[in-house]
């Protein structure tokens, strides 16, 4: 399970970080507007995108092991520890 989470974070996590950076910087461009509500909107959206991206990465890496450990059947974990039992059961 740990290996699967690491693999997911190396592939999907990398694209999530790139997405957060690109969109946050894109909305930060609104800071150069002369119209105050547009500046506020750019700041708000950039901060919201950045914080949601950080929380996504943190929550996926911290909560997914706990979540998947709760739904994996116990007999499957036991079979991995004792592969010789598999042949005897078949």
TrEMBL record:
Gene3D superfamilies reported in the protein's UniProt record: Multidrug efflux transporter AcrB transmembrane domain
Name of the featured protein: Membrane transport protein MMPL domain-containing protein
SUPFAM superfamilies linked: Multidrug efflux transporter AcrB transmembrane domain
Species assigned in the record: Pseudomonas fildesensis
Keywords: Membrane, Transmembrane, Transmembrane helix
Transmembrane segments: 12-32, 44-72
